[in-house]
Amino acid sequence: MESLVNLRRGTYASLGVNQPVKIDEIYVVRTRGEEVERAFRILRALLLCCVKESPPLRDVPLDLNDVDSPEDYAKFRGAVLKLVSPGDYVDVTGGRKVMSVAAAVVARERGAHVLTTLISTKEYARVTEEARKLNENSLDLSAGCSKDTSLCSLLSPQAVTVLLH
């Protein structure tokens, strides 16, 4: 989420001149499983409740528990390949290493930008602990955003987004 905020503000690190970036849609290509589902619910809640004028979030769940074989890699890569166009921004923050590599390779092949967002180990531990303690009611958006402010505390003001390519 910090990547979105930093791109839109133009507050990211790059070798060129930084300009605010207009983001029209966010696609999340993901595997399945309880932990992944919870992470996606947190992402969706952060986007809707903590980011002003958030772009639409498109969920692309794959019928995979993990990417742990050449066939799984091909399936994940193929899903990303269908979504990336020249000039897009592909965020490789988080997820499994092989998934990040696949997304970065596709981005390069398609002429898209590759970026990641970094936070310190200490800040990562804080955010992870806050996410662990997060009440499930904060993630239930059927009645709108919760008044619980702990959700938005998951956004790290210390995060640094780096445009890699």
Features of the shown structure:
CRISPR-associated protein; Rossmann fold; two-stranded parallel sheet; 165 residues
Lay out the secondary structure.
Elements: H1 2-9, E1 26-30, H2 34-50, E2 57-61, H3 70-81, E3 89-91, H4 97-110, E4 113-118, H5 121-133, E5 160-163
Parallel strand pairs: 1-2, 3-4
Antiparallel strand pairs: 4-5
Organism: Sulfodiicoccus acidiphilus
Protein name: CRISPR-associated protein
Put simply, the count of helices is 5
Global structural class: alpha/beta
Terminal-residue CA separation:
19 Å
Radius of gyration: 16 Å
Averaged pLDDT: 91
Helix content: 25-40%
For the report, how would you describe the main beta sheet? 3 strands, mixed
How many independent structural domains?
A: 1
Portion in strands: 5-15%
> Uncertain spans, ≥5 residues at pLDDT below 50?
none
Query: What's the CATH architecture?
Result: 3-Layer(aba) Sandwich
Describe the global form. Answer: globular
The CATH class designation is Alpha Beta
Helix-strand pattern, N to C? HEHEHEHEHE
CATH-derived topology = Rossmann fold
Strand order of the largest sheet: 3-4-5
Give the total of beta strands: 5
Organism: Sulfodiicoccus acidiphilus
Protein name: CRISPR-associated protein
